[in-house]
Amino acid sequence: MESSVQATPPPRPPSQGSPPGGFFNALMDTRFNNLITPSLVRFVYVIAMILIVLGMLALIIAGFAEGAGSGVVLLIIAPLLGLFYLIVTRLWLELVIVLFKIRDAAEEVAANSRRSAP
Predict the structure, then answer these.
(1) Which one of 43, 95, 100, 115 is most buried, counting C-beta atoms within 10 A?
(2) CA-to-CA distance for 26 and 24, rounded, in angstroms?
(3) Domain parsing of the chain, residue ranges
């Protein structure tokens, strides 16, 4: 008869999601056991989106203040520039998240190595 015991996955490291003691407790953690950057990435992305939209609007308004021709040109170019900057911002923030996921995976490998060591 086969055993129906399933292995339970290891608990997630504390650096993912909200730290157990809250944001300000993690901010005062001098050992850097709880990381705040993964929880701030979403906020930074929203702020970047707002700034990009405001920059696009300012560019379009400045173009129309210069003249109708340049305003129409910037009306076409500004959204493309905004999309480009949004993509670049997203890529950089995803790179930051990937680095933290690599760190978490390395911690998990180290913990598994310690458990299996004689």
Answers:
(1) 100
(2) 5
(3) 36-116
Query: Do the Cβ atoms of 70 and 63 come closer than 8 Å?
Result: yes
Give the phi and the psi of residue 108 in degrees, each rounded to 5.
Answer: -65, -40
Task: Name the residue type at position 78.
Answer: A
CA dihedral 42, 48, 53, 56 (to 10 degrees): -160
Q: What's the distance, CA 26 to chain centroid? A: 18
Contact 111, 103 (CB under 8 A): no
Rounded Cα distance between 56 and 79, Å, is: 7
Contact 63, 73 (CB under 8 A): yes
Each residue's pLDDT expressed in tens, for the chain with a length of 118 residues: 455 555 545 555 444 555 566 777 877 877 777 778 888 999 999 999 999 999 999 999 999 999 999 999 999 999 999 999 999 999 999 999 999 999 999 999 999 998 887 6
